[in-house]
Specification:
With about 325 residues, this protein is mainly α. Helix content is about 75%, strand content about 0%. The protein is globular, with a radius of gyration of 22 Å. The model has no long low-confidence stretch (mean pLDDT about 80).
Length: about 325
């Protein structure tokens, strides 16, 4: 289970090695090599979701799912990869000065958003909306733009007085666009978003979270793997809806905490606090995905390699050239 998450552990080590060698540019070529495959999968997945809204959710295991994957259609791992990379695309579109690059990355962001809406992954949609909002709000406040500040104030006033109508209109739009399970969930929340989220959590996730939490309390110190009498049998009954909770239950407080520390290690560097907008967004994405879903290598790749590369790149772009030393007279 954990060996299959190799990027989760080795991603930070790989990136830090190349960073200390001043060879981060290598990752540019890695991204360029991956881009055609990601684009092809995105196009195949998006077009397939239009005619079959549940196709991404139906990819589990077995010959039928393998046949779908062979067609270039992405499932759970690909959808959450798009959710993780979407706020980075949005951040780059804001930071870039060239209009062509702004348009390119903004288009990529909207592509991720459309596929996420069509995919019928409710938690994915919430994660994308929240992380994107964080990027826009923090970046606007950091720029100190009077226009953007006034715009944010107007939006807040609008949401306070007309939030219900705005939300219901958004639900109707998503329902008409995507249909399927996510639209059904959003429709049940009409009129009360907060209460709807609470009901959704209680009805869909609470029971699995409770099982993982109880397993963690029962095997607090050494985890379920140390209980040779029943631990291995209980592993198959874990909630499978929270990587963080399941990790603590499997490994106990000591090794579980180390696992969680590795997960959040890309956020440790102080220099990345300069990129507050994307850092806060990615932190929230990490909590949502790994707190409410299973871990996958595609998301670990974004968090441990793509996100650090982007923040370090723009930190170097902002760095002022050092003045040349004056000749000694």
């Amino acid at each position: 289970r954990y060996w299959n998450l190799s990027i989760f552990y080795f991603g930070p080590l790989i990136y830090n090695f190349y960073r200390t060698q001043n060879r981060e540019y290598i990752f540019k070529y890695v991204f360029m090599m991956l881009a055609p495959f990601v684009l092809f999968t995105a196009l195949r997945t998006g077009t397939s979701l239009i005619t079959s809204p549940s196709i991404a959710r139906s990819i589990k295991s077995g010959d039928e799912s393998f046949g779908t994957l062979r067609k270039g259609i992405g499932g759970y791992s690909f959808i959450y990869f798009l959710v993780a990379v979407a706020p980075i695309f949005l951040y780059i579109s804001i930071e870039e000065k060239r209009l062509s690059k702004k348009a390119l990355f903004l288009g990529m962001f909207f592509g991720c958003a459309v596929i996420t809406i069509l995919s019928n992954y409710f938690t994915a949609l919430l994660g994308l909306i929240l992380s994107s909002t964080i990027v826009l709000v923090i970046r606007s406040l950091k720029k100190g733009s009077i226009f953007m500040t006034l715009l944010l104030i107007i939006i807040m006033i609008f949401l306070i007085f007309s939030g219900e109508e705005f939300y219901n209109g958004a639900v109707d739009f998503i329902s008409n666009l995507a249909g399927g399970k996510t639209a059904d969930r959003l429709t049940t929340m009409r009129g009360s978003l907060f209460q709807g989220l609470v009901d959704e959590f209680v009805g869909d996730r609470l029971q699995t979270f409770q099982y993982s939490w109880n397993a963690f309390i029962e095997h607090f110190f050494l985890g379920m793997v140390a209980d040779t009498a029943s631990g291995y049998l209980e592993l198959s009954n874990l909630g499978q809806h929270s990587h963080i909770l399941d990790t603590m239950a499997i490994w106990g407080i000591l090794w579980g905490s180390i696992n969680i520390k590795i997960l959040f290690s890309p956020f440790n560097r102080k220099k990345r606090s300069k990129n507050a907008a994307v850092t806060a967004a990615m932190f929230i994405v990490t909590i949502i995905i790994f707190g409410f879903n299973n871990a996958v290598n595609s998301v670990a790749f974004v968090i441990s390699i793509v996100y650090p590369f982007v923040t370090d790149y723009y930190n170097k772009e902002r760095r002022l050239p050092e003045p040349e030393p004056k000749p000694v007279s």
